[in-house]
């Protein structure tokens, strides 16, 4: 069965309010951009898109600056991308805009996700040696 999220060109059709683009910066950095809205209707599609288009890239920049809405389901999708990246030993940098910043203040106040503010910072972050995306928290 064909995967509807596998990019055969740079731009994929809009998925219920979100527009996906897969590209590259140089030979080893995948750049995935999502614009529009991430909500309950399309949050699963976000992580499926990233996973389907990651390929063997050891570095990923997820550009979310073009989002006009990101609800709690969007945060879950971003977290799933972090888990996917960690599982595949892929360095991840998330370019967050205002909408993502808003949800991260609520859902990730400790700053556990690898968020950066500029494309230059994202390139620098993923070019550095990989650090674990998931942190173990010891209980009492």
TrEMBL record:
Pfam families: STAS (PF01740). Residues 27-129 form the STAS domain. CDD domains: STAS_anti-anti-sigma_factors. PROSITE patterns: STAS. It comes from the Bacteria. This is Sulfate transporter. It comes from Mycolicibacterium sediminis.
């Amino acid at each position: 069965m064909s995967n509807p999220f596998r990019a055969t060109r740079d731009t994929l059709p809009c998925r219920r309010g979100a527009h996906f683009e897969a590209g590259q910066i140089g030979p080893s950095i995948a750049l995935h951009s999502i614009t529009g809205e991430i909500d309950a209707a399309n949050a699963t599609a976000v992580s499926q898109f990233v996973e389907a288009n990651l390929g063997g890239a050891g570095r990923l920049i997820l550009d979310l600056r073009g989002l006009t809405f990101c609800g709690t389901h969007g945060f879950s999708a971003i977290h799933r991308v972090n888990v996917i990246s960690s599982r595949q030993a892929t360095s991840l940098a998330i370019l967050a805009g205002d909408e993502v910043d808003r949800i991260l203040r609520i859902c990730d106040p400790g700053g556990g996700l690898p968020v950066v503010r500029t494309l230059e910072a994202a390139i620098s972050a993923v070019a550095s040696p990989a650090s674990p995306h998931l942190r173990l928290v010891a209980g009492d």
